[in-house]
Amino acid sequence: ALEDILYRTINGTNSNFGKNRLVNEFQNWINGSIGATMFFNARSAVLQTISWVNFINYGDNNIFKAAAAIANPKRFWADFTMLFNSDFLKQRRAGLKSDINAAELATYVRKSGQPIRAAINYLLNKGFLPTQIMDSFAIALGGASMYRNRIKTYMKQGLSRQEAEQKAFVDFQDVAETTQQSARPDKISQQQASFLGRLILAFQNTPSQYMRISKKEFSDIINGRYSGFFGQNSLSSKIGKIMYY
């Protein structure tokens, strides 16, 4: 699995294209068919919005502290706008980083130099726009309170405002990439990247990630990797994640 991750990361691809033209063509057809199925998928876009809850925790962004951050609308929406327009979320939207099949199709067509496929790919990319926008909306909405509260946490620890903002953004990005659907080569499993995965797991990217998160929390509980009963990285936090996902 580690070798596969390294191969995908180094080569910038989520599939191992071989020399068999027919197999490669079929895989691209599968990617394109899934793109056509997802075209202006309103249901997928609406479901993206519930993922803002991923940023709620049992520590510095619990439901009460998140509510307090939202209660300051001027500051909250300023943070929301900053996160939504950040390079991180712009890259997710522009590079179709939230969907394996769309990202792979876009990469392949860009390299192929075939204008007809490029035109079709352009239309398919537009079809993913509602989901892409709501993906960024949910991340920025949930991340705004976490980002502000995490800055306060780091400043209480003695960091300067600039250092606190930088570390808080890294934490925000880490939560987003761990919990949100992602096409990053190092964020998907062997099964998702495989040829069979394109057929069987095409619409199960997010559930696969959530199952891996739950498995990790189970493992942490069994092996005692938690701190106390309440708070960040606590037993109740891990049980809460398992129940939510």
Helix and strand layout, with pairings?
Elements: H1 2-11, H2 21-37, H3 42-48, H4 63-70, H5 73-84, H6 87-94, H7 100-112, H8 115-127, H9 129-156, H10 161-179, H11 190-193, H12 195-200, H13 205-222, H14 235-244
Describe the structure.
With 245 residues, this protein is an all-alpha fold. 71% of the residues lie in helices and 0% in strands. It contains 14 helices and no strands. It has helices spanning 2-11, 21-37, 42-48, 63-70, 73-84, 87-94, 100-112, 115-127, 129-156, 161-179, 190-193, 195-200, 205-222, 235-244. The protein is globular and about 60 Å long. It starts with a helix and ends with a helix.
Radius of gyration from the CA trace? 20 Å
Counting H and I runs of at least 4 residues, what is the number of helices?
14
**Poorly predicted tracts of residues:** none
Output the structural class. Answer: mainly alpha
As a percent range, the share of strand residues is under 5%
Q: Could you tell me the number of beta strands?
A: 0
Q: Whole-number average pLDDT? A: 80
Order of helices and strands: HHHHHHHHHHHHHH
Largest sheet: none
